[in-house]
Amino acid sequence: MADTRPRPPATQPPTDPGDDGQALQTTQHGVQVHEVPSTTTEREFTVVRRSQTQMVIRRFMAHKLAVGSLVVFLLVVIISLIGGRFWKYGYADITDQFSTPPSLEHPMGTDDIGHDTLAQVLRGSQKSVQVALMVAILATVIGAVIGALAGYYRGWVDSALMRFTDLILTIPAIAILAVLASVVASEAGNWFFIGLVLALLQWTYIARVVRGTFLSLREKEFVEAARALGASDTRIMFRHLLPNATGSIIVNATITVAVAILVETALSYLGLGIKPPDTSLGLLISTGQQAATTRPWLFYFPGLIIVIIALTINFIGDGLRDAFDPTQTRVRA
Amino acid sequence: MLSFIIRRLLIAIPLVLLSSVLVFLLVAYSGDPLAELKGRNPPVPESVIQAREHTLGLDKPMPARYVTWLGNFVQGDMGKSIGGVEVRPLLWQRLKITLRMVILASILAVILAIGAGVLSAVKQYTPTDYAFTFIGFLFLSMPVFWLAALLKEYGAIRFNRLFGKQVVYTVGAETPNLTGSFGDKLANYGGHLILPTIALALISFAAWSRYQRATMLDVLGSDYIRLARAKGLSRSRVMTRHALRNALIPLVTVVAIDIGAVFGGAVITERVFSWQGMGALLVQGVQTNDVNILLAWLMVTSVIVVLFNLIADVLYAVLDPRIRYG
Q: How many whole angstroms separate alpha carbon B245 and alpha carbon B121?
């Protein structure tokens, strides 16, 4: 039964996705290779060649914790983004029930003014998720471009950009955010602005990773070949080199979501982020904490939501890292 | 070695200078320190505002203001707060309180991270490993203020009940106007420190233990470890004498780079326990738009972060001679 033909190596050499000539056409469409059947009783071997994306997805799907986390995370995101519209109470509605513990009517209880905690948590997580997704996308793009430029051009461009990333790391993000957010966001209570500033602070890690990949690959033959064919610098950077960093970029983008949620909620907790009458998870915890012993539901639920979001993201990131890392051997592709 | 240190210093000094420009621009454009004065009702006469602008130097162009500020700062003059208090003694007093927590928590976190990371790696893919991995991920995903509040609201009460008297405190960094013997004072400090430090340490430990596990696994897979085992050394001797010593080196860098994040975490943790430290000062500075407090706060923090990175670089070079010639 053993398949003796050489299998595609588990460790994939750096591929050149920019080369979209004939060769790629034939391999991408899962060419079926038929063994010559020796006997009529034995079933013929069918080996379908898989693209790298398919392999990554297969490896990820084998990681049960990560898949479970992905399902939970997507549910939480969808519920936070649109759930507020379908729940019977709005986040600013005041009911006539004060400080009631969780019940069927109010699954997360109410606060001392009569706000329904579930409605507030929905609103809060909506803001947090919006900020986090925005940060992840923006920071990834900024980081990838800066890392690509630094790694590709090296020399003074590299030094300048890397000193710039060092510079950003010299001041705690929370302090920069506090100073900036208090000024501009006070006018709008603006999640968009908070997300923007956070993105401008969180790209450094992705930039370092992309730069590393570029430095190690820029001397490879396929880059030389592309250059000989007359490809522009931009094309080499973004079509030939950048796809090789896809794995680390996606993993880090995932982690950035978790980091962004934690920083945004911390900022709101300090009273420097999203402001009342709007609400966020950090703000809810900050007010809930004052009554933590008498009305613990006000304190527990918002915190649990943050932990669930961040924990599932971290597990997804871990699964993705395993799936993208070609040197791992635990899960057969 | 000396030339290595000098090289690192030559990078660090311009970095601090650049950082000062960034800090200055950030604060200068973030708000008008006279907003409160201008917004008063009945309106303050224009001449009074202009006089205030003049004394604060706000009527000068930006570069001139930057140079004046930097010159004063280097000489140790951080100006006065809006309330008329000298910023420097205020900042030092707050910094001492916060650094106490940061340093203790970092030490605790490093010890925990090494223990958990190494154990995880040695017992890879066993229940021990999975347990530590889960704990690591859990704290990695927990907001520090929530954990701190959990400890404060639920942990402290249980703990004190256990001892039958107040051992841990949840408000402030120390009891004001404390009298008594040295031992009493120490117990009081400790009682105030314990919960915030644990909260901060647990949050910081999470990422470091994951990192420690990865480096230890890396080392365990290397050839010289296989050789050491092959020539007949016992497993425990190889682990402690050969693997562990090398696996500890990379953590130095990670801890130093993260010190800014730990500082940020301390700022938030302080708030939970109502410490009058750097966190409270930052919030006060932001809410009252106090330029001098903010400038001094950001600048001192950034110098501390750069300093820690420098120490880490040098330490790394001492521990791993290959770096010096790299």
A: 14
